[in-house]
Amino acid sequence: MIEIQNVRKSFGLLEVLKGIDLTVSKGEVVTVIGGSGSGKSTLLTCINGLEPIDSGKILVDGTEVHAKDTDLNKLRQKIGIVFQQWNAFPHLTVLENVTLAPRKVLGLPKAEAEAIAVKQLTHVGLADKLKDYPSRLSGGQQQRMAIARALAMSPDYMLFDEVTSALDPQLVGEVLDTLRMLASEGMTMICVTHEMKFAREVSDRVAFFHKGVMAEIAPPAQLFESPQDIELQKFLAATH
Amino acid sequence: MFNYTFHWHQALRALPQMLDGALVTLQIALLSMAIGLACAITLTLMRLSGNRLLGGLARSWVEIARNTPALFQIYMAHFGLGSFGIHLSPYTALLAGIAFNNAGYLAENFRGALKAIPDTQTRAGRSLGMSSLQAFRLIVLPQMLRVAFLPMTNQMVWAILMTSLGVTVGMNTDLAGITQELNARSFRTFEFFAIAAVIYYLIAKAVTLAARLIAWRMFRY
Amino acid sequence: MFNTAMTMSDLMFLLKGAGMTLAVTGVSVAAGTVMGILFGVIRVQIGPWWAAPLTFILDIFRSVPLLIQLVLGNAFQSIAKLGWGPFTTSCVILSLYTAAYCTEIVRGAIDAVPPTTRRAARSLGMTWGQDMRHIVAPLATRIALPSWIGLTLGVMKDSSLVLWLGLIELLRASQILVTRLQEPLFILTVCGLIYFLLSFPVARLGGYLEKRWSND
Questions:
Q1: Which one of A187, B97, B110, B137 has the minimum C-beta count within 10 Å?
Q2: ipTM of model over 0.85
Q3: Which of B3, B69, B157 lies closest to C195 in CB terms?
C-alpha cells in the first residue's frame, strides 16, 4: 500500500504540491490527470524518493520514503518507474539494458537475470529485439523496453509518468496495450496520463490535479460522467 | 648549396638503438596515460561528489595542470620535490609530470563529455535501485569514455610527444634521450634528430590510426 | 613566515625571464596567426584534395615534438649558415608551429559560416573579396576566438622549451635561481604562480566568450 499524507513540496518559491492525501491499495490502478504544472509528475518522483518533500509523509508498505535512515536503493527495488523519456542505456543491447539492474542491484547470476529479462521482454512484445541496440528501435519499442526493464526487478508497484506523451501517435497504442495488460494482471499502478479514454477503461480510480491540489478523486465512470469540481469540468470540456 | 656533407649512414646505423628508445617512449606514454586516466576518473568523481573540499582539490589539480607548462610540471617533479628530500629519477619525474598533466586535461575532457550525457540516465539507473556509484560506474562512465574517446586519443599522442621533454632532466633511454646522446658523441645533430623526427611522426600516426580502428570496432552502436 | 634567500633582484630576474617568455610568444603568435589565416583561406578555397600537400606539411609540425623541431631548426640554420640567434630560430619554429594549428582553426571557422549566408551576399552582387571582408571575417573571427585564445596560451606554455636553445625565459631563469639558492620548491612555486597568473585569467576570458557566444 502506498500512503501519501498531506505532502507539500515547493521548487524555490513555487509550491507544486499543496497538501496531497492519497492512498493506493494493492492491485489498484489509479490514473492521475490534470493540466501541465499541476504537480502530477512531481508526485511520482517524490514517491520513489528522487525528489525530496517539504512536509508530510509518503509511506510505502509502512516504510517512510523520506526518513533519514531509509535505504532508498532497497526501496526502489520495490517501486518501478517509467518516465516520459525512456532513457534507454545506449551503450547496452536491449537484453543487457534489462539484465543490468537484476545482476548488479539484486546480485542475480547472469543466466537467471537473462531468463527474467527474456520473460519480461517477451511479455511486452520485444522477444525478437534482444540483441539490438536501443538506437535501432522505435520510440514505442524503446518505451516498452523501459517498461520491461522496470518489471525485471519484480516491483510491487509501477509508476508511469506520461509514458506516451513523447511518442508519435501511431506508436501510442502499443504502449497503452502493454499498460492495459499489466493492469489486468493485477499490478498496482499509478499512471499520470493525458489519454482520457485509456484512463476511463483501465482505472479503479481517477484523480484530477489542479495547481498542486488533488481537486477530485473518484471511480472513472463517476468522475467523467458527473464531475463535481468546477476546474475538472472545465478541463474535461477542453479535452473532449 | 650547403657547405656541409650530410652523413646519413651514421644516423641510419644507429636506427636499432633509436627504435629501442622509441619503445621506452611508448612505454612511458602508455603508463602515463593509464595513471592519468585513473586519476582523471577519480578527479571527476571528486567533482561530482558535491563535497566542496574534494571538488576544490580536483579543480585545483585541473587548473594547475592546464595553466602551467608541462615542462614546469616535470621540473617540479624532478627539482621541486628535492625540497622534501624526495629525489626522483629522470624516468620517474618524467612519468609523474606527464601523468599529472594527462590527468588534468583528461578530467577536463570528461567534464565536457559528461555534459553530453543527460542526467535522466542517472535517474533511470537510480530508479532501478542502483546506488550513485553503481549508476556512475555502469551507466555514465561507459558513455563518458565513448564521448571522450577522440580527445583521449589526442592526449595520448600528446603524451608521446611530451616524453621528449625528458632530455631536460637527464632522461637518456627514450627516443629523444638516445638521440641526444648520439648527437653529443657525433655532432651530427641534423641527421640524428631528423630520423628521430620521422620516427615520432610515424608513431603518432600509427597511434591515431589504431585509435580510429578501435573506435570503429568498439563503438558500433 | 617564508624563510627565503630570494631577493627583490632575484624576483626581477624571474620577471625578466617572464618578459622573454612573453616576447617569444608574442612574436610567434603574431606571425603564426597571419600565416594561419593565409593558409586557412587558401585551404578553404582550393579544397581538401589540392591542399593536401600543404595539410601534410603542417601536420608534421603537429606530430613531431616541439623540442625536436627546435633542435632541427637550430641545426638547419647552422648548416645553411643563416646566422640566426636562438631568439630568431625559436620564433621561426614557434611561428610555424602556431601556423600549423591556426590553419586548422581558421579553416574550421570559415567552414562554420553558413554557406547560405555567403550565397546571399554574393547574390547581392558582392565580390568574393567583399564577402570575405564583410561577412566571413567577422563571423569566422567570433567562432575562432575561443580556440585561438586556447592556442595562444598553449604556445605561451610551450615557449618554455626554448630554454633548450639557451634562451633565458621564465623556466630557465627559475632553474638558474634554484641552482644558486638551493630552494627548489619555493622558487618553482613562484615560477608556477607567474605562469598561472599569465594564463588563468586569459583562459577564463576565453571560456566566458565561448559560453556567451554559443548561446546566441
A1: B137
A2: yes
A3: B69
